[in-house]
Amino acid sequence: MPLHILIVEDEPSIADTLIYACQSEQMLATHVTLGQLALDCLKQQPFDTILLDIGLPDMTGFEVCRQLRRFCATPVIFLTARDHEVDRIMGLEIGADDYVPKPFSPREVIARIKAIQRRLHPENTPAVAGLQLDELASRIYYHQHLLQLTRYEYLLLKTLIQQPHRVFSRTALMDTIWQSAEETMERTVDTHIKTLRNKLRELSLKQALHSQEMIVTHRGMGYSLLP
Ligand code: CA
Q1: Where are the domains of the chain?
Q2: What is the distance in A from the centroid of ligand 1 to the CA of 54?
Q3: Strands 139-142, 4-8: parallel, antiparallel or unpaired by DSSP?
Q4: Among 3.40.50.300, 3.40.50.2300, 3.40.640.10, 3.30.70.20, what is the CATH number of 4-120?
Q5: Among 18-27, 118-127, 201-210, whose mean pLDDT is lowest?
Q6: What distance, in Å, lies between the first and last C-alpha atoms of the chain?
Q7: Which pLDDT tens digit goes with each residue over 89-134?
Q8: Which pTM does this prediction carry?
Q9: What is the whole-number distance in angstroms between the Cα of residue 10 and the centre of ligand 1?
Q10: CA 116 to ligand 1 centroid distance, Å
Q11: How far does residue 33's CA lie from ligand 1's centre (Å)?
Q12: If one looks up domain 127-224 in CATH, what number appears?
């Protein structure tokens, strides 16, 4: 099912940009120019996300948000020309989920929509070798079971998941993950790989999951998640 986005924006050029951006991501876009029309639309059918302009001809986006929250929980992203702290706080206090200050790039808006959807439906992000990354919550699941990881174990596994076929040298991993640490040795990487493997193995045994050797060692080169 494609995501269905409600765009509430009276500026035609901005609306067109947003519609185009949504469509190029295989999302459906419905566009209205008035707050009241947005409320009517929401009463008639469900949407996945609402992009809501603050300066609308008939009422403010804040008022639209206040009213729609009485009957619908769809995530709201405010589009705001006034990049004031007050607007931001007001926006988030009346039940908005995020905001993007104008001018924005369509890519940024799409990224926000996707981030909200990931937060709502972390199960929809693709799993790699049974591992599912929930970046917003800084969590990793292994076959739907939450892994209890330390900060560095999390960062290490996240790095491997994000480029599962890439062979990371120890130096590359140290530079990416331990960049702020005072003293790191190549051994540190090996130690964390070992504890990670143990945790994955333990969870596999405990949950009777199909066990495979996770994290591949490439002799003299480094590590990768997948062979
Ligand atoms: Ca406007």
Answers
A1: 4-120, 127-224
A2: 6
A3: unpaired
A4: 3.40.50.2300
A5: 118-127
A6: 32
A7: 566 677 788 888 888 899 999 999 988 887 787 666 677 888 888 8
A8: 0.59
A9: 5
A10: 23
A11: 9
A12: 1.10.10.10
